[in-house]
Design goal:
Elements (H helix, E strand, L loop, with lengths): L3 E6 L13 E8 L1 H18 L3 E6 L1 H11 L7 E4 H4 L6 H14 L4 E5 L8 H17 L6 E8 L5 H10 L2 E4 L2 E5 L29 E5 L4 H15 L3 H21 L4 E7 L3 E8 L22 H8 L2 E7 L2 E9 L1
Helix pairs in contact: 1-2, 5-6, 7-8, 8-9
Keywords: Kinase, Serine/threonine-protein kinase, Transferase
Protein name: Serine/threonine kinase anti-sigma factor
GO molecular function: protein serine/threonine kinase activity
Length: 331
């Protein structure tokens, strides 16, 4: 089934559906090692040929493969390990912003390559990766102009994820041809998106929690104590328990100050991770909350940023009836 109109061969620029003053955000569907190099090597060399700053954020095995293919040209490319940077996808937009700001400071155009998901990703991580892809279009809708190519190995993703790729990218390269996506809607579009708002979707049911309780302004100490108790009993370790305690405290404090004065906490554990959910009746209107580096000269706005730095994964959803934040810490 076709999802858009053909732009042409990948030899030319894929420009359809994205503005000239902000991000040119495209997906590249490939398969296997040869497909990966087809999606990356010439794209990187084309940027270097016109003295663009180039950042590649993929997993370490892919970094080694591309370095070898680029040869000496790899010395002019910046690389980041996406398995480390993007473990929590909410950390990725600030990394692109930092690189873009550096390019502007040095008077250079910027292009990047990112691989948001791969086979080893958990279901929640894949879900947040696609939310990240949608929010990229909002975070970089304004100047300066730059180009980002997002890679997806079709041998490692299912049909549902492919559909989301077409909804979150203005242009998609598939089978060697670039296409404008008919399913994509730019930020602020008057035309309704063909899919649900990912920030308003319900999070999956995790079953009966190990711990569940309500809290109010006088109960923040109890929230912290319960998190510490469960985390240490589960075997998280003192340092990581302290980080998790701080993250949960930040979210619970936000609930007291901005979420109606009270909320509810639920905790789950399994062999792989510890999960804490904080839910309240408030609504979050800043869709990029926690994904912008905070201004240290201002007194607030750092809570969700800190939570994203401390936790291995964070899921945030907000609707008219309330806001839910799930925080994950892995073994």
């Amino acid at each position: 089934m076709s999802h858009g109109s053909t732009l042409g061969s990948i030899c030319g620029p894929v420009t359809g559906g994205s503005g000239a003053d902000g991000i040119r955000h495209e997906a590249f569907l490939y398969q296997g090692d040869a497909g990966f190099l087809s999606a990356t090597r010439d794209f990187v060399l084309a940027g270097l040929a016109v003295d663009e700053a180039v950042l590649v954020a993929v997993t370490q095995p892919r970094i080694r493969q591309l370095r070898a293919a680029l040869g000496r040209a790899a010395q002019r490319v910046s690389f980041l390990d996406m398995a480390e940077l993007g473990r929590n996808p909410a950390r990725v937009i600030p990394a692109w912003q930092d690189f873009l700001d550096l390019g502007v400071e040095r008077g250079r155009l910027v292009r990047g390559i990112g691989e948001p998901t791969w086979l080893a990703r958990s279901g929640p991580e894949r879900r947040e990766s696609m939310l990240h892809e949608a929010l990229l279009n909002e975070a970089f809708a304004a100047p300066p102009a730059w180009r980002l190519r997002c890679l997806y190995d079709v041998g490692q993703i299912g049909p549902a994820l492919v559909d989301e790729i077409w909804r979150t990218h203005p242009a998609v390269v598939e089978g060697g041809l670039g296409r404008i996506s008919s399913r994509y809607r730019p930020p602020g579009s008057a035309v309704a998106s063909p899919g649900p708002d990912p920030l308003a979707e319900a999070l999956p049911d995790l079953g009966v929690p190990r711990v569940e309780f309500a809290f109010g302004p006088r109960d923040l100490g109890h929230v912290r104590a319960e998190v510490i108790r469960v985390a240490l009993a589960w075997g998280l370790g003192a340092e990581r328990t302290g980080e998790f305690e701080l993250a949960v405290h930040e979210v619970a404090t936000n609930s007291v100050h901005h979420g109606g004065g009270h909320g509810a906490v639920r905790l789950w554990t399994d062999d792989a991770c510890l999960i804490c959910e904080v839910r309240d009746g408030g609504r979050l209107y800043d869709r990029l909350a926690g994904r912008r580096r905070p201004d240290l000269s201002l007194g607030g706005g750092r809570g969700l940023w800190l939570v994203n730095q401390l936790c291995d994964l964070v899921q945030l959803r907000s609707t008219r009836v309330g806001t839910t934040v799930r925080m994950y810490m892995y073994v």
